[in-house]
Amino acid sequence: MSTLAPALSAPGDARPRHWGRRRAVGVIALVVVLVVAAILSVTFGARDVTAADIWSGLTGSTDTASAAAVAKRVPRTVLAILVGAALAVSGAVLQGATRNPLADPQILGINGGAGLAIVVGIAFFGLGSATSYIWVGLIGAAGAAVLVYAIGSLGRGGATPLRLALAGAVSAVAFSSLTSAVLLPRVNVMNEFRFWQIGGVGGATFETILQVLPFLLAGLLICLASSTALNTLALGDELAAGLGARVRAARLISTGGAVILCGAATAVAGPIGFVGLVVPHMVRLLVGVDHRWLLPVSALGGAVLLTLGDVVGRVVARPEEIEVGIVTALVGAPFFIALVRRQRMRAL
After folding, report:
1. Has residue 20 been placed in a domain?
2. 3-state SS string for 167-213
3. Range of the structural domain that residue 264 is part of
């Protein structure tokens, strides 16, 4: 079990000052890297652009092919930042609420549930608008979260971290198989969403961003408001309850915020995995375990990871593209294996 937030150290302890410096340096570094990543995202792609093209594209001009390419990359960059931040915060909250270091929207099957619900909605109910995708994605994500928790709670001992991870992994495979079963006989639906299944931000538009933004903001506010409660949950359910915390309510509300973030992000970008797993663990090295710092800084880290991953996917296979979901999987899979091998990390 991890320790309390550094802010709870004893009076006179040098650790708060040490963590304060580390946090400040870490936040500034992430902001700088995010700005650089955004510039790279606008600059690099299948077509080379000049500084004049970048300026023209940023001002909305599409007079030349290069300026038009830049104008198309701007919403793509914004969406990568938003989706990366949402997935990272979602993962950090799920890890804190379940006290499971392996918790991640994809590993727990929440991404898969949202994706399955959207595909079913398109195939059987003719969904066609981004707003309908978001609502259906939220329903699917919530249903998947409830299902995984119910399965993980079966038997003695309740929903342990290991049981939740196993239940999520099994559910994720089942959701993926069901999604394929729905898509395969329907060529028109499969052609439209075969890249969406992998996860990417290539089809971003400002219209889509404006439609999903209220959901992302609502989920983020709920998660940030739950940061103090998540710190209390880190003490263990019995001690948290002894301190007056409403354990079930805190866990339900924080998980609800994570589900909103995950469902909305999946609806617009597809089931992108491992961002919510990798980023929170890396950010803990910078800011510690205090969720009042961990959640906002994880948002920065997730934005950096997904934006840089999208740039890499566009550059390594030019003029073709590798979807960012593949890039994050290549980064996240080894990290996941290393995390599992650390047997002492059984709970947060």
Report:
1. yes
2. HHHHHHHHHHHHHHHHHCCCHHHHHHHHHHHHCCCCCCCHHHHHHHH
3. 6-341
Q: Does residue 347 form part of some domain?
A: no
Residue 281 maps to which CATH number? 1.10.3470.10
pLDDT band at 2 (very low <50, low <70, confident <90, very high): very low
334 in a structural domain: yes
pTM of the model: 0.86
At 83-126, the pLDDT tens digits run 999 999 999 999 998 888 878 888 888 988 998 998 888 888 87
Looking at this protein, which amino acid is placed at residue 2? S
Rounded CA separation 105/214 (Å): 20
**Domain total of the chain:** 1
Q: Which of 39-43, 158-162, 187-191, 257-261 has the highest mean pLDDT?
A: 257-261
Domain annotation covers residue 336: yes
HEC states along the chain?
Answer: CCCCCHHHCCCCCCHHHHHHHHHHHHHHHHHHHHHHHHHHHHHCCCCCCCHHHHHHHHCCCCCCHHHHHHHHHHHHHHHHHHHHHHHHHHHHHHHHHHCCCCCCCCCCCHHHHHHHHHHHHHHHHCCCCHHHHHHHHHHHHHHHHHHHHHHHCCCCCCCCHHHHHHHHHHHHHHHHHHHHHHHCCCHHHHHHHHHHHHCCCCCCCHHHHHHHHHHHHHHHHHHHHCHHHHHHHCCCHHHHHHCCCCHHHHHHHHHHHHHHHHHHHHHHHCCCCCHHHHHHHHHHHHHCCCHHHHHHHHHHHHHHHHHHHHHHHHHCCCCCCCCHHHHHHHHHHHHHHHHHHCCCCCCC
